[in-house]
Write a structure and sequence with these properties.
The chain has about 80 residues and is of the alpha+beta class. It is about 35% helix and about 25% strand. It is built from 4 helices and 3 strands. A 3-stranded antiparallel β-sheet has the order 1-2-3. It is globular, with a radius of gyration of 15 Å.
Length: about 80
């Protein structure tokens, strides 16, 4: 969500992320939680050596989108993130 709203990379610190988002939404914690809950995992692609998908060391690609963007078919608003062990 941090990438989608602010264009910033997520540093895997949930508290810092929540603080930044709350500041972005003018201190409105309810709005922050609403935005976080409206962000959906659209697609997840796991590493699969047999078919040639290798995301670093056995990672996965995850694509996120806001519910409103999905409903409006605004797929250009999709965010891709790479997770790896």
């Amino acid at each position: 969500m941090l990438q989608i709203a602010l264009g910033e990379e997520y540093d895997y610190n949930e508290q810092a992320c929540e603080k930044k988002l709350t500041k972005y939404y003018g201190g409105d914690e309810d709005r922050t939680w609403q935005e976080l809950s409206d962000t959906l995992l659209l697609l997840k692609i796991d590493t699969h050596d047999a078919i040639g998908f290798q995301w670093w060391d056995c990672g996965e690609l995850q694509f996120f989108i806001r519910k409103s963007d999905l409903e409006a078919e605004r797929f250009e608003q999709t965010y891709c993130s790479l997770y790896s062990s």
